[in-house]
Amino acid sequence: MFSDIQAVERGLRRAGYIGDGIVHTTVYLAASLHKPVLEEGPAGSGKTELAYAVGVAADTKVERLQCYEGINEEKAIGKFDEPLQKLCVELKSKSGDVDWTALRTELHSQEFFSAGPLMRALLYEKPCVLLIDEIDKVDQKFEAMLLELLSVWQLSIPKLGTMKARSIPFVVLTSNEERRIGDPLRRRSFYLRVEHPTAEREARIVALRTPDSSAEFHAGMAGLAKALRGWSLEKPPSVSEILDLAEALKILGHEQVTPDMRDILLPLLAKTEADRKKLLLRDGFASLVYDAQQYTAEALRGGAA
Fold it and tell me: Which pTM value belongs to this model?
C-alpha cells in the first residue's frame, strides 16, 4: 500500500488527516505486516476518519461494517439470495430434465451469494480498507468469528465453502470502550489510543476545512471545542461537529463566537435537553466563551511555537 512512512504522511495529509509520527508509523507497519489497527477512545474523537483517510491515501475503496447490538454473521458476511435461487429452480424445471445434483451445487455457488462487507473486502483485486466500526457493541461470539478473517484472511461459510482473500485488506477496528475487547483480538492488532485533539491540533484540522479563514478563527474554533468538552456535557462535541460549526459561522459571516450568539448557536452546540439547559443557565454561555478565549490563546501560542 505504501512505499515508506513518508508516503503515509503525505497521503494522510492529502486526505485532510492530521496525524503524528506514531500514527504514520503504525499505519505503515500495519499495511506492511497485514495487521489490523485497533483504535480506542471516546466517541467523536475521529477514530473512523483514519480508515477513510487511509483509503484516500492508498487510492482504494473503504468497506464499512457498522456494528450494533445483535448483529449476526449474515449481516457481516452475507447470505444466499433465496428469491434468486427459487427463480433459478423454477426456470430449470420448465426446461425439461433437471440434473438436481448439479443444480444443488450451482445454487450454493458464489453467484447466488449476496456478499456482506467482510466478504466483499476479501474479493477486491487491489487491497481495500475494511472498517469494522464500534466493535465494542458486538458480543464475544461475533468477535470470535472475526478471528479467522484477521488470522488467515479467509471466511468459512456453510454450503459455500472457504473463501480465501484475493487481496488482504487494511483493517481498522474502532471501539468507544462500551465493552472490553477480548485479548485474542487485541493480540492480533496494533493498538492506537485516540483522544480528542489538543487545541493546537484541532486548529490545524479546522484550517484544512476552512483554509480561507484566519489563524485566529481556527484557534477560536479549537478553543471553543476544548471549553465545551471540559463542561461535562452529556454529548460533548465531536471533531466533525466542530468542523460543521466552523462552516456555519462562515456562512453567517462571523469570525468569532460571542456571548450574545448563544441562542443562535444552541442548536449546533447542545444535542440533548440537559446540555441545552446547562448552556441556558445565567452567565453559563458567557462563562463558556471566556473559557474558550483562554484556550484560543493557548492554541495560538502553540501554533506560533
Answer: 0.85
Please indicate, yes or no, whether residues 88 and 209 belong to a single structural domain of this protein: no
Q: Which residues in the chain show pLDDT less than 70? A: 303-305
Closest by Cα among 45, 44, 2, 10 to 27: 2
For residues 61 and 129, is the Cβ–Cβ distance under 8 A? yes
* Together in a domain, 212 and 268: yes
Residue 242: CA count within 13 A, CB half-sphere:
31
**Largest Cα span, the chain:** 84
The answer on 176 and 95 residing in a single domain is no
Q: Domain range spanning residue 60? A: 5-72+118-193
- CA dihedral (176, 182, 185, 186) positive or negative: positive
Within a domain: residue 304?
no
Are residue 166 and residue 292 in the same domain, yes or no? no
The domain tally of the chain equals 3
What is the full DSSP assignment across 4-59? SHHHHHHHHHHTT----HHHHHHHHHHHHHT--EEEE--TTSSHHHHHHHHHHHTT
pLDDT tens digits for range 42-99: 999 999 999 999 999 999 999 999 999 999 999 999 999 989 988 988 888 877 777 8
* d(C-alpha 205, C-alpha 201), whole Å: 6
Strand partners, 113: 80
Last residue of a domain, one of 129, 161, 193: 193
In a domain, 305, yes or no: no
